[in-house]
Amino acid sequence: MKQLRTWLRRLCGTVPNSRRERELAEEIEANLELHIADNLRSGMTPDEARRAALVKLGGIEASKEACREQSTLPFVENVVLDARFALRQLRKNPGFTCTAMLMLGAGICASVAIFTFVDAALVKPLPYRDPLRLVGVYELHGECLTCNLSYLDYLDWKKLNTVFTDLEAYQHNGFRLTTSAGTQMVTGTRVSAGFLRVLGVSPILGRDFSVGEDALNAPHTVLLTYGTWQNRYGGRQDIVGQTIVFDDVLSTVIGVLPRDFHFAPAEPAEFWIPLRPENGCEKRRSCHNLYGVARLKDGVTARLALANTQLIARQLELQFPESNRDQGANVAALTDVIAGRIRPLLLILLGGAGLLLLISCVNVANLLLVRAEARRREVAVRGALGASPARLARQFATEGFSLVVAGGGFGLVGSFWAIQLLSKLIPPDMLARMPYLLSLNLNGRVLAFAVAISLLAAVLFSIIPSLRLSRDAMLGATHGAVSCGNRTVGTSWQRLGSKLVIIELATAMALLAGAGLLAKSFYRLMHVDLAFQPNHLATLELDGPLERYGKDEQAVAWLRRTLSRVAGLPGVKSLGTTTVLPVSCNCNTAWIRFAGKPFHGEHNDVLEREVSAGYFETIRAPLIRGRFFTDRDDRTKPPVVVINQALADAYYPGEDPIGQKISFVTRGEKPMEIVGVVGNLREGGLDEPMRAAIYLPFNQSTDAYFNLVVRTAQSEDALFPMLTAAIHEIDPDVAVTREISMDDRIQTSIPACMHRSAAWLVGGFAALALVLSVIGLYGVISYSVSQRTREIGVRIALGAQRPAVYGMILREAGRLSAVGITAGIGCSLASATLIQKMLFSTPPRDFSTLASVALLLAAASLLASFVPARRAASVDPAQALRAE
Amino acid sequence: MSNKPDVWQGTLALMILRTLDTMGSMHGYGIARRIEQTSGDRLSMNYGTIYPALIKLEQEGSIVSHWAASDNNRRAKYYRLTAAGRRQLQREARVWEEKTAILAQFLKPSEESA
Which of A48-52, A62-66, A372-376 has the highest mean pLDDT? Predict the structure, then answer.
């Protein structure tokens, strides 16, 4: 308490106060007079009396100084003084200050902006109760590590497990929403009744699904997300209890989810409805369409849970060999399920930004060193006047700190802007699937990160000039510095400076190599063989009412009318339909067996798509053998199928598949005759492996849902309004959605976005790093030339040829670059495995990339050292010698 | 220079407090003189050192100051003890007595070695 009071009063004392000074002087003076009067009384002469009193006092100024120190906090006062001096120094040298601030600002801006994304995706806790106890639960089959559960398997797992407090299931889907304005397609997720309870989320309005609300005979209910409530229903409080026509059924709205709720694996989802086992898939144990989410019991680890689910999977395998053969189990932390995909990208970007920050810090440190050189005289004089090394070091630390505060503030403002820009660059589709990226903000964690990296930079900037000070400026170098000025002392700076330049070049090399690999990988991804021509293709999804198109003949008639109506539109060259568009996912699979081949119940899992006549022709997929479908391939004809080349290679090696028959394992349908082999159409995402696929004629395997694919001569976007109008002319109740050209679809697909952002951002960082490191090299070499002007003059006067001078300077620069680049190659080789996860068909140790990047850096370094070399070679010996 | 010992570090504050306790209100010069006199002129101090000590005590709230006319009708700054200062004096005096007693015990001629 007493200490605090003292400290506070001393802190107040740091504010300059002339009254206090005056009072102190007056007090001492008054006491001195009293003393003199006493002395006079004891018989001294006036002169003696005054002198004796002064001697006894021990010096007026020293006393005052001691008092001043006692009445303020000398440390704080010095800091204030240092800061004012530092600011004056920085203002006096605007070129240096601006450059340093810009470089630091750029590094801090990039790091903070990227960290904001890292924070939102990887650091910020998920909006659930105790999110680290939540796991995703999957079946495992072959290479598919996170495969869907079948409904019946899910029920058994839920019943038999001993490791979860709860196991719930969800399935993301598209639904039809009918309002007075018509029918549109909306996103939604079907969840088992306890889904929100397992997450620990409760609605902010209304109630959660109650137990048993996901039964077949329960009344239809629906939960709204906060956004849906606001956007579609105006945030009306009375929404709970209202009915809406959802998927052609009257459903009651029972509640609204919290604003910050999201569940990325099932997003985008506007509506959340109970999972009623009402479609055919949920009646078959072999049909997998659900994902599981569970909460681990206290004390149960994910590994234990995995062992338990594996045990159950084995039991089911024995019990249901037909459907569950080779069906394993997998359990993964929910945090991995949600952010696992974007984690490598974010970590790479964070690494890149960090390296950029390192380079900019090193560059600023280098600038500070040059300045410290220029200020040797000042330092020496201050040292000679009694400033202690610690005091001088503190002065430099304050300057470094001021610089960092300025640069950091600049970077923070910049990062605010950069975050806006970056989040605008994320395509809406991707954002919808990564909803945690919607809540980006400069929160406490981000600010703490900004402060931490700024402090690191400040420490670096304080240490580097002080290192120099402690080495020689303080140890008797005073006379040298004062008498010889800047001439003899450049070498020690150069040693440290060139070490810093080597660090910069090595870092730049590592960043450039990373950027090169990512760019190459992005190029390869975008040039992966699609086996069709994506340009000038317009695509959209159609979803018709099931009661109108549930039967084969109804759906076929609808498809025929739609196709013939759209074919008549101007600009339409050809068209077709498919149930799953290419370049979307390796999903919708079926188990097949081959007639005439031995079958032991193995799961030959292949992609299954239903396509119309004209589909392959429209997307220009290559016909390898046989024929494609025609409109006449319908229920009145024997069933036919087209397989892809991958299937032919895998299951009919060295045979002619045409005429062979395949059938579904678990569906009681007639075997289908293979009539054609199509090239390996890329059905999955750009980065996914090619899989075997079968294509069924839509007319033989109908659905009330399909994607229309139209090849057009004109712009796709101009066609969409006409397409939608034509479809609604035939049936206004058909929901139309996702009107997008195939090119855009590919460009905005998640793998394309992730690789593009990795390549561009790391590329940007690398470009900045290249510029900064080359500037650093230029700085060191030109400083060296300016230090050696006299020496070079002497050499030229003694007959050295200009090329020899060139050579001398370029050799010096070349040595630095060579060391830096070699170290950089080492770093890139070591770090290459770190970015391996983001590389697509590019080896992490790609020789050609490394070689070209090294060449680029070498060429840039050569260019940077050429300018000072030229200046050295054009030194006029007479002038150089006279100048000193 | 004289051979008189200087004021030991840390004891000046205690002496000031004690002086003010016995003498009531005093100015800096008076306090310094009084300390020397009380020691029987065995202590010698630079009068300048009294001022930082006074500032520190004032910051701690043990003493307060005011300006008043002195004996020879000059304005001088007078200090007096506060209640907190009196408590501090009692506390520190006790601590000091204990310390000196312990030290005295150590410096006593040894009886066992005899």
Answer: A48-52
Q: What is the pLDDT of residues A848-866, one digit of tens each?
A: 999 999 999 999 998 888 8
Chain A hits for B51, CB-CB cut-off 8 Å, are 24, 27-28, 63, 66-67
Residue B75 in contact with partner chain A when CB distance is under 8 A? yes
Q: Does B52 touch chain A (CB under 8 A)?
A: yes
Question: β-pairing, A249-256 with A205-206?
Answer: antiparallel
Helix axes B12-23, B50-60, angle to 10 degrees: 80
What confidence tens digit (pLDDT) does each residue in A497-529 have?
788 888 889 999 999 999 999 999 999 999 999
Bridge pairing between strands A537-543 and A144-147: unpaired
Residue-level pLDDT at A609: 94
| Cis before A268? omega within 30 | yes
One-letter amino acid at A86 equals A
* SS3 call for A694: strand
Residue A653 has pLDDT above 60, yes or no: yes
Residue among A2, A27, A61, A73 with most chain B CBs within 10 A, to mutate: A27
Interface check B85 vs A, CB under 8 A: no
- Residue A560 CB: number of other CB atoms within 10 A? 15
Confidence (pLDDT) at B111: 58
The first and second tokens of residue A606, run together, are: 């292949």
Interface test with B, best of A14, A20, A31 (most B CBs within 10 A): A31
Residue B75 belongs to what H/E stretch? strand B75-81
B55 — contact with chain A (CB < 8 Å)? yes
User: pLDDT tens digits, residue range A100-152?
Assistant: 888 899 999 999 999 999 998 888 888 898 899 999 999 888 777 888 888 99
pLDDT of residue A486: 43
Distances (CA, A) of A60 to A6, A21, A25, A37, A829: 25, 13, 9, 18, 69
C-alpha A107/C-alpha A117 separation (Å) is 16
Record the pTM. Answer: 0.78
| Residues composing chain A | 884
Q: How far is CA A328 from CA A337, A480, B39, in A?
A: 18, 79, 95
Start-end of H helices in A674-749: 716-730, 742-747
CB contacts < 8 A (A, B): 78
Q: How many CB atoms lie within 10 A of CB A678?
A: 25
Our CA angle for A423, A425, A427, nearest 5°, is 95
Q: List the end-to-end C-alpha distance of chain B, in Å, as a whole number.
A: 40
Q: Name which of A139, A154, A242, A140 is nearest A193 in CA terms.
A: A154
Q: Which residue has the tokens 């079948």?
A: A150
How far away is chain A from the Cα of B75, in angstroms, using its nearest Cα? 7
Q: Please say whether the beta carbons of A694 and A643 come within 8 A.
A: yes
Q: Which of A435, A525, A592 is nearest to A749 (CA)?
A: A525
Distance in Å, alpha carbon of A481 to nearest chain B alpha carbon: 39
Nearest Cβ partner of A63 from B29, B51, B72?
Answer: B51
Q: What is the pLDDT of residue A324?
A: 83
Q: How far is CA A840 from CA A142, A518, B2, in A?
A: 22, 8, 89
Does the ipTM surpass 0.90? no
8 Å CB contact of B47 and A23: no
Question: In the predicted model, is pLDDT for residue A692 greater than 70?
Answer: yes
Write down the pLDDT at residue A82: 77
Could you give the count of Cα atoms lying within 13 Å of A347 in the half-sphere of its Cβ? 15
Decide the pairing of beta strands A182-191 and A205-206.
unpaired
Beta strands in A520-646 (DSSP E): 537-543, 572-578, 589-594, 604-611, 623-626, 640-644
Rg (CA), chain B: 17
Q: For residue range A250-277, what is the model confidence (pLDDT) as tens digits? A: 999 999 999 989 998 888 899 999 999 8
Give the closest of B28, B48, B72 to A58, CB-based. B48
